Fold each of these.
Amino acid sequence: MKIQYAGCTDIGKIKKRNEDSMYIPQDGVVKDVVIVADGMGGYQAGDVASSMAVQVILNMVGSARKKRLPEEASARMAIAEANRSILDYASQNEFFSGMGTTVVLGIRRGKHWIIAHVGDSRAYLIHDGQIRQITHDHSLVQAMIDNGKLTYEEARVHPYRNIIMRAVGTEAEVESDISEVEYDKGDILLLCSDGLIRHVEDDELLQMALQKDSLEHITQQMVDMANERGGQDNITVLMARCEGR
């Protein structure tokens, strides 16, 4: 299967620094892997954490492939190693104490994507004219939704919507959730940080994704919409579309 990739990241309208990082396969480096990471910690700490996570994960996935490890195992190992690396770096540099990052990672295996995530950055699959959220947010408001204490609409404007319950680099151990999704010609895997979904509804993402246009234009259009509606956080979106054989 041939996959077309594109991504767009933007600082937004409020933040002073873009703490998001992403990875799209390029020639000569790790193939069939996509990553979005949303750093936190303030000052330079967030962007250090997210960029460190992306690089460590790529190194670990590349190494795991040489050993022919299953993608699920390599994803867990990669995120665990990113967690250790960020913790070690922060412990040796007081300026970066408390930094961490979300991670959503996709590794392609044949006609499937193996998805691993920690935090509230999301993965969606667009298939047969419908959009489905693959990941389940590790956030306070999501826990309140699950417990019946908040509606989805209330969660979008809740004052604690930025609080996440699980992150990479903040605890000695981190648990990543793993999913597997099948894809076919025309299907799109979409990864994004919460800066996008704070302002853009799922059905709006679907409408833009189904346009007969370049992925570069579509991802930029999504970022532009989030900015037009306030751009309260860094905004990152990455798309991988199956173009057939």
Amino acid sequence: MKTDLTDTTASKINKALVKARRAIGTPAVGMVLTLVIVTDEENAYDALKAAGDASREHPSRTLVVIKRVSRSPRDRTQSRLDAEVRVGADAGTGETVVLRLHGEVVDHAQSVVLPLLLPDAPVVVWWPVNAPLDPANDPLGALAQRRVTDTYACEQPVKELAARADAYTPGDTDLSWTRITPWRSMLAAALDQIACQVQGVEVEGEELNPSCELLAMWLADRLDVPVRRTRSAGPGLTAVRMDTDCGPIVLDRADGSLATLAIQGQPKRAVALKRRDTAELIAEELRRLDPDDTYASALRYGVERLKQENGGDAPAKGERNSGEREAVPAPVESVAKGPAAEATAEAPVKKAAAK
């Protein structure tokens, strides 16, 4: 059931939700959270579709906030709120409200969203594109226990990681981090099978791919070994090679779907490691609403190394290093050691692979 409301208020939207639920005989008690999606008109359809698919696992009230920027100065003074209320088959397993904000109300989106939140339920805010540099201090982000961004959607995705680390607040997360969950699980399981020490790692993937950089940061943080970042044609992450005192461990995925795990002394194994769509990523993020300490540790590790290599000064929010080499992102430099650096750098203390 779909209801269109023009020049409306939050109170009228709540009444429309109650009326729609009664009309189709659907109670609201089955919803477990409120998902707020902040996007533009161009990306609203894809984000709403992903949220609808994820609602099959996490029934929720989905509020889509679309800020309509007026071109005419006269239109900017005319505040208006239009809404589209969807309940039943049109909204997956929950409820959906599409909010289009016009004029001055664009600057007060939190006042529109607050009355529509489910009572006594967690709130998650997701920015598919154009996320703020400091999500926790954003007026909408301040309402949420969990804030989801996607650095892959930024113009300079890898460089954006430095700003994300600088503004990190417990509850922040990134879909670029979520994309590497299967890789992290597979690599940890491979190290559990043999008793060895890792001496060096190579991460291979697309250039300017934040997921590749985050995986390199995580490996360097957890293993305390040199991590070399190499580039390939993709798609996405293509391979991770770990040099150990028991022989190499290689996880290679050339086609973006099926990977091969090779461990010294064992037969090669084919493992499913497909590239997941946005609905699967959002569903994973909604499974846990507590702070992701592992993500925070990996992110801060990369920025700390960046500070060391730039004389103690990391890029401030929105700033970029003018002395960076072309096509070499800052976070790559923060965790990667090239051949020359490896020859002169002090050898790090090796941690046990079980870490």
Amino acid sequence: MKKIRKIAILTSGGDAPGMNSFIRAAARTAIANGIQVVGIEEGYAGLLAGKFRDLSNPTSVSNILTEAGTVLYSARCEEFKDPKYQELAAYICRSNNIDGMIVCGGDGTFMGATKLSALGIPTVAVPGTIDADVTSTDYTIGFDTAMNTVIEMVDNLRATCESHARCNVVEVMGRNAGHIAVRTGIAVGASAVAIPEVPFDEEEAIEKIKTQRLNGKRGIIVIVSEGLPGYAEKLAKKIEEETGITTRFCVLAHVQRGGCPSLEDRLTASEMGAAAVERLIAGKSNVVICKNDGKICDVDIMKALTLDKLYKGKLTEEEIAAIPPEDKAWMDERCAVLKARTEEYYRLANLIR
């Protein structure tokens, strides 16, 4: 097993609060083990451009815990899907004596990691996305802070809803997943929550809003996931038409990616950053660091990506049949757990609205 003397860290895809905690923990864990550390600015695009920053001094990552975003910046890199650019990236790593890579981001970032691993650059991935849509892990960096941001902003909206006896339909982020929507919907006392994973009974929701108004409820909040494109605005119009309640439509958008990282994001990001370095030192590669049932673990990246596609219905019957039986059993169990968890949150949201 080759000794790890120098590692590189990068963040890719959408930024997420807590990424700086990950960078700090990974860098300092490496330094504590006598390993040189460089940060790569602007993700895989920065790797191809050779944008390296020395992080081998512990002070290089001082005072970044409270900052949102990522001090290493991020960027999309469509070129990295091309094998010739993947080979160029591996060559750049070898030319700079990089013995291992740690990358933080979502599924696109993981795909880049597995390509580098296949080209001989040991790589470990860490899930960083506010959407919490990485199926192999219970938790992704940025999720908790994003939800807290939604709660704060919707609480502010509720004040004006109460004052004017209005309804506000709020679209929250989450990509194609409704995790942010359903959990914040419960937390803000939404009268209705619409997510892509569970069929939404529009007429029943509108009748509930009518009943709430008759019972004296003034401020009404509805939460809709962006995984239902364009639906929030349409729903706002229909609520106003059918109830007579003045209804406004609000998109919180990218403000949800900002904000001072919460304790949960700082803590989990630190655990994952340290674990990623320790996995490299132990000779592991092509794995994603996960947190399941409250414990840090690792999962093969290709296995994680296949699970993700299975859960999201993106595999053909032939691809599903090709999954080894042992892996398929694990994936089926994981999908069932996640589906049941989402459905229970949705049930609770409707029960106590």
Amino acid sequence: MPYPVDPSIAPKVAAFFDPETNTISYVVNDPGSSSCAVIDSVMDIDYAAGRISYKSADVIIEYIQLNRLKVEWLLETHAHADHLSAAPYIQQRLGGKLGIGEHIVTVQETFGKVFNEGTEFRRDGSQFDRLFKDGDTYEIGGMTAFVMHTPGHTPACTTHVIGDAAFVGDTLFMPDGGTARADFPGGDAHVLFRSIRKVLETLPAQTRLFMCHDYAPNGREIRWETTVGEERKHNIHVRDGVSEDEFVTLRESRDKTLSMPRLIVPSLQVNIRAGHLPEPDASGKVFLKVPVNVL
């Protein structure tokens, strides 16, 4: 077997859909213990009013407390550009270690310049408790989880394989949704194609795949779970038989038609800080910057 996980273990997966950002967060529970991990949590923001809240995170916290679970990990599949992370808030309430892919340092360097962050902003990933390398493993109770580096959407994207389930972040969408954009700074459609094939050709066909986003194409209901086999057969962008050049042509053409995500400015400033807001000024007020003619 090419990776150190047991596909016979089926973790319990609870999904939490945020309609404001079309994000799906997850609580992944070891079936043999009370241990769990939280993946891609959401902090709410009223951008026009400049107000944040934690109603989405509180739903996750309530679920964990009602089921008497113990949080061991708070995982980010990448530094999201469409929602703010609530990981520090959940960590403060319930504990656990905060982890992301090691290439977050590349994203921090890139967007540290975009937002003109000062030298006090650390670009070494030290805001997180663990930086995962490709092939790293970690434990959730009695389960061994495995990390695959799957860049292309961003340099820091990772897929987390936990038993018979894999959490792909923005590396893949549902089969009728295709794939995420690859035109952000550090993104690359060629690299994204190779990452997707790595996932689809490494993991067994029956592996459950869990998406970070769904946009209900053609008006269908929101969905977030599929399988490797279904993606290989039916994904409209990267099903078996689609070449790298065909994918890149399609992806780059589509990316040219897309506008920037509505929350990219606040999201990246917060998420490169592991979900923390920028430091307050001398009066105690917190500010987010808006770069002009940069993104």
